[in-house]
Structure formats: structure tokens, C-alpha cells
UniProtKB/TrEMBL annotation, chain A:
Membrane topology per record: Multi-pass membrane protein
Keyword entries, A-Z: Cell membrane, Membrane, Transmembrane, Transmembrane helix, Transport
Name recorded for this polypeptide: ABC transmembrane type-1 domain-containing protein
Domain of life: Bacteria
Natural source organism: Ferroacidibacillus organovorans
InterPro entries noted in UniProt: BPD_transp_1_N (IPR045621), MetI-like (IPR000515), MetI-like_sf (IPR035906)
Residue ranges occupied by any ABC transmembrane type-1 domain in the UniProt entry: 96-303
Subcellular location: Cell membrane
Family: Belongs to the binding-protein-dependent transport system permease family.
Example of a GO cellular component annotation carried by this entry: plasma membrane
TrEMBL record, chain B:
Record organism: Ferroacidibacillus organovorans
SUPFAM superfamilies the UniProt entry points to: Periplasmic binding protein-like II (SSF53850)
UniProt key word Signal: yes
Protein name in the entry: Solute-binding protein family 5 domain-containing protein
GO biological process: peptide transport
All copies of domain Solute-binding protein family, residue ranges: 98-459
GO MF terms, alphabetically ordered: peptide transmembrane transporter activity
Pfam family, any one: SBP_bac_5
Amino acid sequence: MFSFIIRRLLQSIPVLLGISLLLFFMMHAIPGGPLAMYDHEPGMTKELLAQLKANFGLNKPLWVQYFNWLGGALQGNFGYSFSYGVPALQMVLQRMPATLELMLSSFVIAVILSFVIGVFSALRQYSIWDYLLTILSYIGVAMPTFWLGLMVLVLFAVKLQWFPVGGMSTPGQAFSLSNQVWHAILPVSILALYLVAHESRYVRSSMLEVLGADYIRTARSKGLFPSVITWKHALKNALLPVVTVMVMDGAYLFGGALVTETIFSWPGMGRLFIQAITQDDYPVIMVVISLLSVIIVLANILADVLYAVLDPRVQFD
Amino acid sequence: MTKKHWSITLAATLASSSLLYGNLFTTVAAHAATPASQGTIIDGLFEEPANLNPILGPDQTFSNIVETTMFSNLFTVTPQNQLLPNLATVVPTTTNGGISKNGLTYTFHLKPNAKWSNGQPVTSKDVWITYKIITNPLVNAVSTLGWTDVASFQTVNAKTFVIHLKKPDPSFIDNVFSGNLPGILPYSVFGKMSPKNVNTATFNHAPTVSDGPFKFVSWVPGASITVTANPYWYGPKPKSKEILFKIIPSQDTLLTNAQAHALNVWYFDPIEAVPQIQAIPGATLHFANQPSFEMAVVNVKNPILANVKVRQALEMAINRQAIVQDIWKGHAKLLAADQPAMAWSYNPNLKPYPYNPTESKKLLAQAGWKMGANGYLQKNGKTFTLVYSTTAGNAYREATERLLQFWLKQVGIQLVIRNYPANEFFGTVLPSGKGWDLGEFEYGDSTDPTFGPYQLFTSMGAQNFGQYNNPQVDKLFAQQSVLTSLAQRKAIMNKVETIFHQQLPALWYYAPQQIDTTIGMTGYVPNPWSVDTWNCYDWALTK
Amino acid sequence: MAIATEPTVTKTFSIGTSNQQRMIKRIFRNKITIIATCFLILVALSAIFAPWIAPYTLNTPDLNAMLAPPSSVHLMGTDDVGIDLFTEVLYGGRISLMIGLSSALIAVMIGGAIGSIAGYFGGTVDAVLMRLTDVGLSVPLLFVILGLVAVLGPSPTTIVEVISLTSWMYPARIIRSRFLYLKSLDYVTATKTVGCRNGRIIFSHIMPNAVAPLIVNTTLLVGQAIVLESVMSFLGAGVQPPNISWGYLLNQAQSYLTSAPWLAIFPGLMIFLVVLCINVLGDAVRDAFDASYTLEGGRS
């Protein structure tokens, strides 16, 4: 196991390098470019534009730019944001806690709920409850976050006034946990909803399948109590594909955070990323992407380790 | 000077593009005995400013909005487009001797009581360091327009300085001391700074020394910026204690904030939201004419569009009156050429083309187009197809496109829609001149309305995306650029406008109004020549 | 009753009917499945025959009826230029169903192939393919959209390509995790010792047991793909008029979410119902698969 983890970590190095190389070139290939913002400014001339290009270090060949970036990045220097003029890494790190708060709380809630819902509806397959939960979960999948998020804001923040209309805390007020939680409830629910909808389907399907397996039937015929069967035997085996999905959802959460953060004015890194992309702020884009790919690669190692923990028959080779 | 909101957010937002160019607030004669500043005004910002250094790029309307509360420049433009002294004591003219007869020497006097928020006086040294920094190539300045014409800067004393120009520039004061720049920099901060450190100075995100009605308190990244009344400001005491700029990057969320009374100011509201804003109790909608124009630039490199008859046929096939009436609900004015009525270069004798599909078809037939079996016009075996491009995710433009597609089909023209995110559209697609035949966007005039059309439609222009080339127009622009008499320039520009009307280097659409909402406050006066915080010291919460 | 009946093990041998017929019978054993199938057929037919069913000509604005709420004249209301929404929803089904189904299928096929090869062979093959999946997962969606569309230009084909290229990683990892588990089971080892070829083991012996989570994934992907297309529309990379899709309609509705909610509700409802029905059908297929497989004694 230990050597497996070490080997995987070593493997991640070329993967991460590959990702950074691929994305660096993709980023530069997307039309627009960071100078578009300056392009049509009054008095902008070709000479000034060339000077700006040099100031941003964009006048060198692309591969030189990449190795410059890589050299800096390996020393923790990701350069300065083109539009903000502050270290890109610092900007992202400033926004990260907000995003982590949003993503982690949604993730934990979603995992718990989707297990409860998934197992429940699997045990009562084809019952009214099963259908109801199925319908609800597909509402979660089919309703775009931007629509649902806004509807929730209109209902709970404008009409009922139970919750604030976005933000992470009341501006100008000293930090208080209750205030933070009060602000977090709506965005966390919206982000969790999609995950619950999505993951509970996998839990349900896995449970159904395992419940149909021979050994469960045997256990049942032996007169074991249903609840013991369900939780001890079935769930453990149902976990394998579910763990895969959940680990990947951890990475996918970021995509959901982009929209949720925008609608709920959440000062996180998702919004920063969107802004960086619309402005082609290369240094910021690269920091976010590097961070994400590290997280994704680590999460997948974790997933493989979890397989082995859950099912000793899975071998590592 | 276009200042687009570059944001197109993934979520539900429209990048409502309003083009302003920024600057200052006025010196209003002393408002005697104002009560103590009270309360916090909450401003919704659609886009987070990149920095709060008034001379640093990129050029963003929302940076200017915040900066204008904290910084002063020498002059202010009023909503009536009048230049008033701000930090300066008087507007230099040839009559008062502030500008030399040959138009090359300008003398400026600073107000004796103008102070920075640290209590130090504003002096010629501050202006000098601003000049040095802006013109340094290592600094990513917001705009060097006008500054590049400076031959020398001469400090006479602490409150007086003289600038010599290389060539006469009638827009010099507009461009340098009022137009595009919200303010000047403090020598105490930048005097000893190496120019290459200016782009990354901590001052850019915490401008602790400023000279406007408010001063910096805090900036919570991604969330809010707070400014508080500046006790050292020379002008009237601000009526509110604080302004809190809340960053809300979605127009839909801005609307819900307005509905929940969670903000006092919402700039640049989308026209689609107007009925909902009207339903908010206590909300005031401000519709202000602005010196900008919406148009579809014609790519005349396409041989089909090189024919002026075809361009006229296109203009008449589009029911622009209906767009103004039904999409804009009358909050826009139809145009006959580029310039809107509030620009001095506007030619009142020109009338917008009528909506006349019959005439349009006739012109197309004259140009040799015949109706084909597929319901579209044909010539030399080719179908009349045009590619129409604009910024993606913009509701009124997308609505316009659907109407255009329908109207043009009525005269036999096939319209292919191809939209791009704003950065791609302005950064790559338009300048390349490839892949589009008609490109719709909005252009904002500066206080000098000849600047825009010069850039857009002369062979010397940096933004002549459609490659329009008319030697006569080039000549007229060259003529007016050296004149200082407004009447003479106006006569020339009238000719230019007439040519633009007939020749249609772009399909002229309309001048949209700027729409802003305020809730529970007084004193808000939109300023189409500056930004709306120009008189923020006058803003007060009601009750 | 703690445990519901298990339809998967109903052992009703119908001697004389072929395997296929048995499968079909099992799939449609449930009334809900029949309803779902009928609905899907209805949507497909009305998309195909839209020109004959639609009450208005497509893309015909009526400025006197802008943003009209649903009524007998306009069943689903009208949009911001007075185009009849019902007409658009009918036509929109054509592109949306095509995009949703084909991109989901392509994604699952790519992912299924990569995942099963990686899981079955393990070792270096697994390492390489899974690291490739990591790369795929790390590329932000926005990038793929902007990049690919810039290169290929916007078209329904590009949309399918973008969606399948960004969605194959899920099925790949899911299938791989199933294969890791299944290949260690006795019956697979047995088939190996008997000398079965790898291809046969993968397709006939492991795949049928790995298919359940894949079906869930496919049905979810159909819905995701249709919604994703609206994100692409927002960036100018999606379907553009005169072509209409449900995703386009959803995107267009964004500016009118509170003032004209029907613009989002009807296309959203269609996506929801279609995805729901596909899921019901998918569940039935999976159950039938399970049952038939159990009957043939393939399970360990």
C-alpha cells in the first residue's frame, strides 16, 4: 500500500507537468488575449501595445514563456496578475477559504443526504417514495443552477426575507459565526442539491444491484435481520462505484461553485477564475488550474486507496 | 473612449455595456453649514475594480466609479458637459491667459486649500510625479492620450506649474486633467518609487493617501470596498459618512438586491429589468442620455458590402424604429449617422433612414441581386449571406439579432449569427477583420466627439475594423484637428456626418440611454460625461 | 416491511420465447416504463413533425406580443421578440435530443472503452489511461468550450464533441472501478483458466455486471448535455438562430427569470421530463439485464 502511494505520487509529477503544458498552450490559443482590454483604449498605439506586451512578458516565444512560468512556479512564484498587479498566488489564496467553505460544507451534506436517500429508495424500489425521490433528484439534475439559485434568492431573500441576498457576511460587520452560517445556507443548499441529485442515483443503483446478489439472498434466507444485511454487507459493496463518483464530484464541485459564487456574490476563487478567463489574466488562470489539477490528482489517488480499503480483493499492481 | 465592461460571467448576467469615460466631481460653491455626515450608502458594483490607482490600467468604468469618490483631478465635467475647476483655481483659456496664443503653453494654478487625506497640501510636485509616471513606458498607464504631447513640465512654485506642448491640442485639458483620469497621484507615495514598481505598488489596492471627498478604509477581495468621508477635503462636507461598494457580479443578483432593499445604487441596469425595478417601492430610475452610439460596423472588405447601395438597402430593411420602441421602450434615440444629439459634432439636418423594405428590395435589385428558388437573393450563383457578430450573452443584442434575421429574410438576405465573448470579440475578431460582415457594438464618445469617428472610420484610425477608406473623410478630419475654433470644426464635422449618413460605414442604430437605479437616497445625478460618483459628496440617505 | 420485493429475481421462465423477447417483456413489465417510453416517442415524433404541428412559423417575431404569458393563443407564452415559445420548444427538441443522446452515448462509449481496458489489464496500461483521465478532469470546461469552438467553429457537431470530450472521464473511472473489483472474482479467474480470450471476458463476462452504474451515468449525462449546451449558448458557442435548442431557450430565458418565468420553465420542464423518462427506461433495462443474467447463471 505504502509503495503504491509513493509510486502514484511519483507518477503524478509528469501528469501535472503535462496538464500545465497543455493548459498553458490552450490558454494562449484562445482568442482575445490580455491586451484586448487595452487594445481599444484612447490613444493606444502600436508602440504602446508592444511596450505593454513586453511589460507582461508576452513578447517572448510561447515555449520560453512556459519555461519561465514553470521555473517561477516551482519556486512558488506564479507572477503578478495582469489586471490586478498583485501576486497571482496571493490573490487565489485570499479567495480560497471562501470557496473551500462552500465546497466542503456542500460536499459533506451531499454525501450524507445522498446515502440516506439512495439507500432509502433502493430498499423501497418502485414504491411511491422511490418515484418521488427519483423525480426530485432529476429536478436537481435538469434545473440549471443559475435558474434555481436565482429562484431561491427571490423566494427566501426577497419575498420571505429569511436569508440575505448573497455575500459571505454582512459587510462592515465584525466576524461572527452565526452571521457566516446565515449567509452560507442558501448557496450551500444550491450547490449540495445538484450533488445529492446526482450521487443518490448512484447509491440507489449500487444498492439495488448488491441487494440482488446471491450472498445477500443467502444471508436473508439464513434469517439475518434486514437492517444488518443492508448496512453491513450491502452498503460496503455498493460503495465502490459510489466512492469513484463522489471523489470525482469533489473536483466537479468547482464547476458548480463558479455559478453559485456568481449568483450569491460569494467572494471565492470560482468567481475570480471566471473573471480571469474573461480578461485572459494568464497568471491567475494558471494558479487556479495548477491548484485544481493537484487536488484532482490527489483525490484520485485517494479514491484508489479507498477501493483497497473497502475491498481487499482489489489488488494494486 | 470606449470603456466596456469586460465581464461576461458564466452565470446569468448580461454584460450591459455602457461606455463612459471617467473623471471627477465638481467644485460646487460651498454648501453652507451641512449637518454631520451620516449613514452608509451601499453601491452595487457589477465588476470588481482591478486596482484603485487612478492612473493605472486597465481602463474600467467600475474602477473609475470608486476612484472618483477618493481622488480629485484639476477639473470636473458637469452633466451639462461644462468644465469646472476642481483642484485648479480656474480653467485656463486663451482669454484669461492660461493658454498661450499659439496654443502651446498652459499655466495651471492649484487651490491653496487643496489637501491630501494625510493633511499635506496638494502641490505642483504631485502633478509632476503623475506626469512622470504616466509617461514612463514601464507603467501600464490607463491612457497616455494627451500626455504624449507634453514637451516639458515646468514647476513655478508649490501651487503653480506650466506645461509646454509639442503641438496644439484642443483636447489637452479634457484628456489629461479631466477626461479619462479620475485623479493625480501623491508625491509622498510615488516620489521615490522606481517606475517599474508602480504596477505592483501596495497603494494600488490600498490608496491610503487621496485627495477626494472620501478616503480609503478597506478592500475585502471579491466582496467589498469601503470609503469614508475625508476630513481634509477642501470641498463641502460629504452628506453620508461612508460609501460601501458591494461587488455583485450578476445583473440578476443586483436586481434581487434592489428588490430586497439591500443596496442604494445600481449602475447600468439592463433595459429588460426596467419593469421590475419600477415595481420596487422607493426605487428611482434615472434615464440619462449618454454620448454613445450603437451600430453595426460594416466590413467593406466583403465585395458585396463595398457597394453603398447594398449598405443603404440593409439600413432600410431593418426596422430600427421598432428596436427603439419595443426593445428599448423608447429609452434610446434613433440615429442618422454616428453622433448622438448631445455631441457638438451632431448634424441636426440629417434624418434617420426610414424603414422601407420596398425601397430596400429595389436597391438590391439595382445592385444585381435576383430572388432565388431558396427564398434568398442570388448573384453569380451565390446566395446573399452575411455573418453578423456581437458580444455573446447580451439580451437586447440577441433580441436585435433575431429581429434582424427575420427582417433581412423578408428582403431575401440570409443572416448567420456568430457571437463571441467580449474579450474575443474586441480583442481578436473585430480587429482581424475576418469572419464577420456586420459587427454590432456600442461606442462611447469622449468630451471630444471627433475622436471616436476618427478612430473608427478613417484610414488612420486604430479601430477602423471595417477597413472603411474614404480620402475625403480623412482630409476633413486632418483639417479640423488643427483648428481651435469650435464653429469651424463644427462646420467640417457636419460635412463628415453627412458623408457618414450617405455612405454608411456602419449601419446606424441608436443612442441608448444610461439607466441607473437609486433606492432610499437623494443627490444622485447621472453624469454622462464622467461617472456617476462625480458628486458623491451630495449623496444622502433618506429618512 | 423492511425490504421491498425484488423484481430482479422473479424467476418466470417462459419456455419457447427467445432471449430477446424475454428481455423486452421484462423491460415493459412496469406500467411506468410504458408511460415513459410513450412520452419519449411522443417528444421524438413531435420534434420530427414540428413543421406540421407547430402553431406558428419558426423564428417569426411579433412585436405586438412580446413576453406574452401562456394563453390559448400562445400555449407556452412568447419570448422577448414575440416568438411563440411552444413552436420553439417543438423545434428545439430536434437539436437537444440529438445533442443530448449522441454526446451521452459517445462519452459513455469512450469512457467505457478506456475504463474497461484500464481496469481489466491493470499495470502500466491502467496507469497511463488513468493519468490521461486525470488530465481530462483537470481541463476546465470553459477552456474546452472556448478553445474547441475557436478552432472548429460553432455547430451542433462541435457541441457534441465538446460535451463528449468533457464527460467521458466519469464513465471511465466508474467502469474501471467495477472492473478492478469484478476481475478478482472467481468466475472471471475461472474463465481465464479455461482459456477465454480477453475480448470475450471483457464483453461477455465482466461488462454485463459493470453496466448498472453506466446506465445511471448515461441517463444523467443526457440531461447534463442538454443543460451544458445552454452554457455554450451563453458564450456564443452554442446553437444560434435560426436553429433552436432547449439549451438556447434556457440561455435566452436568463434575462427574464423573474419577469417572464415561463421562458425558463417550459424548456426546463421538457429537459426534466425527457431525462426522467430516459432514466425510468434505463432502470428497466438494467433490471431486465440483471434478471436475465442471473437466470443464465453468470453471476458468481
